[in-house]
Amino acid sequence: MSPYILFVMLSSLGLGTTLTFTSSHWLLAWMGLEINTLAIIPLMTNKHHPRAVEAATKYFLTQAAAAAILLFASIYNAWYSGQWFIQDMSSPVSTLMTLAIAIKLGIAPMHFWLPEVMQGISISTGLILVTWQKLAPLALLMQISHNIKPELLIILGLMSTIIGGWGGLNQTQIRKIMAYSSIAHLGWIISILHFMPALAMINLFIYLIMTITMFMTFNLLNSPTINTLAMNWSKSPILAATSALALLSLGGLPPLTGFMPKWLIIQELTNQELAPTATLLALSALLSLFFYLRLSYSLSLTIMPNTHPQTLNWNMKTTTPLPLSLMMMMTLTMLPITPTIISLF
Amino acid sequence: MVMMVVFSVMFLISLIAVASNPSPYFAALGLMIGAGVGCGMLTQFGMTFLSMILFLIYLGGMLVVFAYSAALAAEPYPSAWGSLEVFSYVVGSLMLVVVMWMLLVNDFGAFDEIEGCVMSVRRYVGVSEMYNAGGYMLLVAGWVLLVALLVVLELTRGFGRGCLRAV
């Protein structure tokens, strides 16, 4: 891809999300989402391959359908209430709007496109897809969250966490596993959304950090399947060890950062007298934890059953890029500064 | 009102022609008729200029869609409403329409509401208001057109690229 075209596409990606962030009018928010969809398609087919074309086609069809439903819901809202402001969404229409945004985000009953699209595109484009592309729809969802029925959000959230955990169990492809992991994390985000939007923001923030870390790691290790993960301890021993821990952080184990949002969300849900929901969320996190554990097991605890062509290099030149190191530290060790992070949101 | 009912029924039939899963050929034909009849519905609401613009744009776009689907799927034995499978879809869609009619129309009184809606929407000040206050939005809209051009260019550039069928 020509760097000029790449520049135009990346800046349009930025423009679309910023436009959705800053607009108070449904039409402009819809426009931003459409710019986003349009701009990422050439990035998806950057390495022109039938799977990439298939992924881009699936992505375009899903997002266009979701955007059409979103536009329909906002027009219906304008007809129903006579104004276009995002914050004043009327209650019956907000259900339709929530479902449209759920298609855009890949939340559980509408999640089928996400693993398939992720499998067809490169890891770096996948990183854009599961981080930057989630921001604009989530911003809309947070602005209308006080008008959405909490039952709807809880049902969507529970289905996402359970299906995200269950779906990832049977996968051997890293990108599909990460797609299911994204579905499960979004389930946590939207199940707390109505009760405490700030907590959903914290969860989104931590999710972004952990996901960026994992995608950068897999991009660096260049390993698309679980099998190839087992070779990586010889390429970069420290990265193999820390990324195994980062996977456990993604699963939400206590001394690591990923425990923080799960802890706070379960506490808040219990305060709202939703203990069964909190229990189900915690149990479904076990499903996710199983495949994270499988990944970290093959990343750090197994050796390929063939003869290794060289002895282990004990004094390697550091190849880990600085952003990855920073993100890795944030992924692993932010639990002690939980009060600071809470005060930020 | 009579024309409105006629247009609405034609609109439904043409959409069922799309939804009943015939050969792409006939589905594109149904889509074209649906687009045209939809513009006819708009004229019944009094928006003649809007419907003319829409009709011209739709006609151009739909011709391309029609040509594309005719070229992509040139079947020797196209299936239309005569075949059993497609006909079952037609019956299913019709039943769905009837059920929705019975559920929704009596409650909402669709036609009355639409006329009420038109009275509040038909303000020609809106156009000048858009050019006056929404200048930057038009700038973004123009940028979107440029991006769309570049996206299409990037997707179809070069030899052997851009066609879904070539695997």
Automatic annotation (TrEMBL), chain A:
Domain NADH:quinone oxidoreductase/Mrp antiporter transmembrane residue range list: 23-283
Coiled coil: none
GO CC terms in record: mitochondrial inner membrane
Keywords: Electron transport, Membrane, Mitochondrion, Mitochondrion inner membrane, NAD, Respiratory chain, Translocase, Transmembrane, Transmembrane helix, Transport, Ubiquinone
GO MF annotations in UniProt: NADH dehydrogenase (ubiquinone) activity
Localization of this protein: Mitochondrion inner membrane
Membrane disposition: Multi-pass membrane protein
GO BP terms: mitochondrial electron transport, NADH to ubiquinone
Entry's transmembrane regions: 56-76, 96-114, 126-146, 152-170, 177-196, 202-221, 233-254, 274-295, 322-342
Pfam families per the UniProt record, alphabetical: NADH_dehy_S2_C, Proton_antipo_M
The reaction(s) this protein catalyses: a ubiquinone + NADH + 5 H(+)(in) = a ubiquinol + NAD(+) + 4 H(+)(out)
Residue ranges of domain NADH dehydrogenase subunit 2 C-terminal in the record: 289-342
EC number annotated for this UniProt entry: 7.1.1.2
Domain of life: Eukaryota
Class in the EC hierarchy, top level: translocase
Family, as annotated: Belongs to the complex I subunit 2 family.
Function: Core subunit of the mitochondrial membrane respiratory chain NADH dehydrogenase (Complex I) which catalyzes electron transfer from NADH through the respiratory chain, using ubiquinone as an electron acceptor. Essential for the catalytic activity and assembly of complex I.
Protein name, UniProt field: NADH-ubiquinone oxidoreductase chain 2
Provenance organism: Erpetoichthys calabaricus (Rope fish)
From TrEMBL, chain B:
GO molecular function: NADH dehydrogenase (ubiquinone) activity
Record's bilayer topology term: Multi-pass membrane protein
GO CC annotation terms, alphabetical: mitochondrial membrane
Stretch forming the signal peptide: 1-19
Subcellular location as annotated: Mitochondrion membrane
Any Pfam family: Oxidored_q3
Superkingdom of this protein's organism: Eukaryota
Catalytic reaction(s) noted: a ubiquinone + NADH + 5 H(+)(in) = a ubiquinol + NAD(+) + 4 H(+)(out)
Keywords, ordered alphabetically: Electron transport, Membrane, Mitochondrion, NAD, Respiratory chain, Signal, Translocase, Transmembrane, Transmembrane helix, Transport, Ubiquinone
Function: Core subunit of the mitochondrial membrane respiratory chain NADH dehydrogenase (Complex I) which catalyzes electron transfer from NADH through the respiratory chain, using ubiquinone as an electron acceptor. Essential for the catalytic activity and assembly of complex I.
The protein's name in its UniProt record: NADH-ubiquinone oxidoreductase chain 6
Organism of origin: Erpetoichthys calabaricus (Rope fish)
Origin organism lineage: Eukaryota, Metazoa, Chordata, Craniata, Vertebrata
